[in-house]
Amino acid sequence: MRIGLANDHRGYEKKQFITNFLKDMGYSVINYGTDSNESVDFPDYAKKLGKALQNKEVDLGIAICGTGIGMSIALNKMKNIYCAKVSTPSEATLAKAHNDANAMAISEEMDDETTKQVIENFIETPFSNVKKYVNRNKKIREINND
Description:
Layout (H helix, E strand, L loop, with lengths): L1 E6 L4 H13 L3 E4 L10 H13 L5 E6 L3 H8 L6 E3 L3 H9 L5 E5 L4 H13 L6 H13 L3
Parallel strand pairs: 1-2, 1-3, 3-5, 4-5
Helix pairs in contact: 1-5, 2-3, 4-5
């Protein structure tokens, strides 16, 4: 599985931690973020990750900024990108099982143990294919056409 990472300056150190964690788990990691702590505009990096997801260069995306909120908003502006702003392992599981998210955004302030759990849950949880979630996600995808 190929996982794309995007980050702004505030997410740089967390990206380094996540990159090492994912590689230790055996995943391929593609970097779409900045490689320093120098101030940058997060939408530029969210767009790179979103394009990679749209072009199927990566299977899933993880975006990191100060809160995760800005990255999530930017990614969700892009067609066929479904990004959940995740703060807990349970939210990561539900983002995939119920909402079939293909990206998640997290805060650089998340502690390392929670970060590991969130990532594992997000990657390892399949979409549930329960009828009510299939129907709800179909309605979400139709909004892309409005």
